[in-house]
Amino acid sequence: MTTRTASATTQLAWMVLVMLLTACGDSAEAPVEVILEVTVITAEAADVPIAFEFVGKTSSSRRVEIRSRVEGFLEQRLYREGSMVKEGQLMFQMDRAPFQAQLDAAKAELAQQQARLTNATANLKRVKPLAEQNAVAQKELDDALGIYRSNSASVAAARAKVVQAELDLGYTEIKSPVTGVSSFAIKREGSYIGIGDSLLTYVAQIQPMWVEFSVSENQVFGMRRDEKSGLIKEPADGDYEVEIVLADGQVYPQRGKLTFSDASISEETGTFLVRAEIANPNKLLRPGQFVRTHLLGAIRPDAILLPQKAVQQGAQGSFVWLVDSEGKARFQPVDVGSWHGNQWFINTGLQPGDTVVVDGALKVRAGVEVKTTVYHEEQSAAAE
Questions:
Q1: What burial class does residue 228 get, using C-beta atoms within 10 Å of its C-beta: 0-12 exposed, 13-18 middle, 19+ buried?
Q2: Confidence bin at 28 (pLDDT 50/70/90)
Q3: Protein fold of 66-94+173-204
Q4: How confident is the model at residue 135 (pLDDT cuts 50, 70, 90)?
Q5: E-strand spans in 192-246?
Q6: Fold entry, domain 97-171
Q7: Residue 69 buriedness (CB in 10 A; 0-12 / 13-18 / 19+)
Q8: b/e map 309-326, b = 16+ CB within 10 Å
Q9: Superfamily of domain 51-60+205-300
Q10: Phi/psi of residue 104, each to 5°?
């Protein structure tokens, strides 16, 4: 190959290389415009029911101590520990013999005093007409009248002893004053029961049940402040319904009403004690259960709610992306309130009718043109 032929070949190779590079450069300078796809929701104002949640604890609406009213030996326990007992059911039997003997003695004394009264009455009837005729001295009439009155008082005292003895004998049968769940027996058969050591067991009434919870001073002030500012509207006369959620997440089917609010704040905890009463027809609730307590009945008027993912956090606080009439994204600061399910209450920053970006908000930039579709929570959850 001659030198001239080699030079021509080299020039041709360079020309081809330059053409290829030029073609590549033209391709890089022609970007394809991509419009971001987002889902949007239209801000709407509506009255939204809200609930206040507290940690509560169930307790018996009537917890009764079962005690012996008389001293003596415990003869029998007549109930099964931990079982339901009915009002009037016999639970313990004391030894009756000493009290039966006391009753018999009281009745005998009453009979004796009644016999004396009968004699005194007959003597008074005999002496009184004689005294009116001055056939006997006035002293005899006075003595007869005094004996009659003394014997009448003795009969009344003896009759009272009979009543007391009958009561003591009746007290040997210890019955439940309420229908409820029994506790374990503190005393066993054969134990001597004294007046200062008379507690035998407990019975807890569980229909209805109480639910007690504490409301902090800050929560009370916050609720008053929100009501004054119009953020919340309480039910008339504070007539809240009470709903409870059990430990397994089950919503208890019965709802209750508030029945008591303590007049003062606890110095130890800085909280108010509040109590609700709730029906327990199926005996599902027992004293001592921890539950989540919801106060229902308040509303948030003209509230705007947004899905959690629509609200972003920046250096200046919370914000959302709006889509304007030209289909472009616009930055909008907002003030968020409390949670409502998986949504935020928006206190300020939005107006009804604003179009808010939900899905795709993390990719949006100010002024970017976006293609919108309506946000549906179910579809968004499936896509995730």
A1: exposed
A2: very low
A3: OB fold (Dihydrolipoamide Acetyltransferase, E2P) (2.40.50)
A4: confident
A5: 192-193, 199-216, 241-245
A6: Helix Hairpins (1.10.287)
A7: middle
A8: bbbbeeeeebbbbbbeee
A9: Efflux pump adaptor protein, beta barrel domain (2.40.30.170)
A10: -60, -40
